[in-house]
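Per reviewer request, we include the raw input and output of the structure prediction for the construct analysed in the revised manuscript.
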Amino acid sequence: MVKDDDVHDANDGVRPATTPRDIDKALDRAEKGLTRLDAMHEVGSHASGHERLKQAAASSALLSSVWRQPPAQRLRFNPLPTTETTHGLMPWTLRTIHGDETPAFHGDKRDGLRFIDISSTEISLYQRLLYANGARSATSTSAAEEGAVDPSNRRILLVLQGMDSSGKGGIVKHVFRQGNPMGIHYHGFGAPSEEELVHDFLWRIRRELPKPGWIAIFDRSHYEDVVMPQVWDTASQETIRERYERINAFEADLAHSGCVIIKIFLTISKDEQRSHFLARLEDPTKRWKFAMSDLEARDRWEDYMAAWQRTFGLTSTSAAPWYVIPADNRWYSRAVVSELLRTTLAGLQLQWPPLAADIDLDEAKRRLRAE
């Protein structure tokens, strides 16, 4: 049995980091916590499932302490002048964000990359826990309460949006670097196919939603069906308003059924995008990514920003808020998404599912040892 003193409480001495040295200390402690957790998972360990999850929560809390403010609070879309920034209280919108900012993080690129590496290890653990609950319902007292979500129906939808070259693909590659493909579903939405155009605009979205226990990642999404028509004037205002209403109802139903929705907009500056496009054109291994439509979109940059600003205002809800993340520094945006995903997974407070009721543990061990 693991002694209680060996399992560090998630709130034990954890304070937000305010200096680079604080960040180093927090990351060192988080790594040590993961080492303890690895030992708990070794063959022969007598640590209970509860003790292992308690240690994982402690390590996650230490990781979260590298942020001066929680990204879920600091980077949530907010049209009111109530977001705490280095310039005082301000709105947090596309009009006030600079792509090269790194809000609430006082470390450098090295710290950010180290954070991502440690956080991805924790994400892989919580992802396995989520998948296990989807495969077999865990015993949970909260699930028995009226109105509570059955843990076996928990799932996550991560929506990634942003202008071309804002880093959506890199988010998937780096944040999920240690994830198990069994339990992760990625889908990129391009222009609707002929088959998709025959159906309602949410038809193709519903087909790719996460199953219980899974994480689905949307590279672009149903939001293309409200933003693009505004920029290119391909639908009436009445149609667009109706789609906004349907999206809110759709996401509210998803959330009510146990699906947590994390909506990310990666905010890249126009100058930074230009640099990425030029780099693509200079690199023969990346030229395939470039299309002339990329330049056409740049010509309508302000129209896109206006359409997205309107979209955030109409669809950032308590059930499915938008997080607007500066993305000129790729390491920073990846660290933010990693933090949002990991804390979301930890916040589900899932438990490891028990052995099936019809299995006698001692008998199963006896038969295996007798072979």
